[in-house]
Amino acid sequence: MLIDLHTHSNASDGTDSPAALIDKAIERGINVLALTDHDTVAGWNEAISALSAHPRGSQLKLVLGSEISCQDKDGTSIHMLGLLFDESHQPLISELEKTRENRLTRMERIVARLNEAGIDITLEEVYAQKRGDATLGRPHLADALVARGHVGSRDEAFSTFLHNGSKFYINHYSPSPEEAIKLIKSAGGVAVIAHPLASRSGRTVNPEIFADLIAAGLDGIEIDHRDHQELERSALLRIALENDLVITGSSDYHGTGKLNQLAEFTTSPEQWERLESKARERRVISV
Ligand code: AMP
Ligand code: ZN
Ligand code: FE
Ligand code: FE
């Protein structure tokens, strides 16, 4: 059983269409795949159609979700995976819209800062790098910088101009992780904190953060992820065991946008069953 609970398509900053992602997941032999684009559900319908149309579609169970951008009290960026929620739950959908809207003005401001520093790039060039309805993100700006020849790759764009500590970095609106968990839960879904120790390497676990998230209804922790060191995994495992949380592993696949390969880390069938049973309804798509 191959279970990959965190992947991106070009409905956000991945490079594969949802349909291409479904094809590749089936080709790779994946049995359970979650589509978790940043702050959107825009890829869901295409993924469902692709699964229905695929001759071997019955091999794959599709878990629809989103990776919700959050911000902690101290300004730390936190990503919350929401899976199996009802996409007609307006409070959650409105919150995602608010974040996506704010990403547009944030991008204008980042582009203005780059221009002030003499780096020639336009907002139009950034938009040209994304699918019309996709969530706008720094990776699209990175692709525009590559297209202009300012840098050689997304990775180089991040290590030079776009990383969180850069003078060009600007935040966008996002809910607190507690708010995000409450919205996911009220929409009937499950909440798994994504790569919690990867945002700042060397950052020690703050158990108080987890206590608040658990009180808000956190269901699981993504532990096996390429951005986690061995010590970080063991610290997270301890927290998960102490609090009876589900533990997951996943690829965080972005197509050619990142090195991450489909199913490079996976979730065990036992943990997946536990997680799925915490959703209000059976919302896994199978054809
Ligand atoms: P944003 O959501 O606009 O703040 O951009 C953050 C996204 O950029 C993350 O979700 C990652 O997918 C992507 N990202 C971060 N660092 C890199 C990198 N070095 N190479 C490619 N993509 C990256
Ligand atoms: Zn991303
Ligand atoms: Fe993330
Ligand atoms: Fe991700």
Task: Describe the protein.
The protein has 287 residues and is of the alpha/beta class. It is built from ten helices and seven strands. The chain has helices at 18-27, 44-53, 90-116, 123-127, 138-147, 154-162, 177-186, 207-216, 230-242, 269-277; strands spanning 3-7, 32-38, 61-71, 77-83, 190-194, 220-224, 246-249. It has a seven-stranded mixed β-sheet with strand order 1-2-3-4-5-6-7. Helix 2 (44-53) links the parallel strand 2 (32-38) and strand 3 (61-71). Helix 1 packs across helix 2 and helix 5 crosses helix 6. It starts with a strand and ends in a 10-residue tail after the last helix. Zinc ion binds next to loops.
Brief overview:
This protein is α/β, with parallel strands linked by helices.
Essential attributes:
binds fe (iii) ion; binds zinc ion; alpha/beta; binds adenosine monophosphate; 287 residues; 10 helices; 7-stranded mixed β-sheet
DSSP strand content: 15-25%
The string of secondary-structure elements, in order, is EHEHEEHHHHHEHEHEH
Query: What is the makeup of the main sheet?
Result: 7 strands, mixed
List all distinct small molecules, including ions and cofactors, that are bound in this structure.
Answer: adenosine monophosphate, zinc ion, fe (iii) ion
Count of extended strands: 7
Q: What is the SS-derived class?
A: alpha/beta
Distance between the termini: 18 Å
- Spatial ordering of strands, largest sheet: 1-2-3-4-5-6-7
Query: Which residues form runs of ≥5 with pLDDT under 50?
Result: none
Portion in helices: 25-40%
The Cα radius of gyration reads 18 Å
Shape: globular
For this entry, what is the oligomeric state of its chains?
single chain
Question: Taking all residues together, what is the mean pLDDT?
Answer: 96
Contiguous helical run count:
10
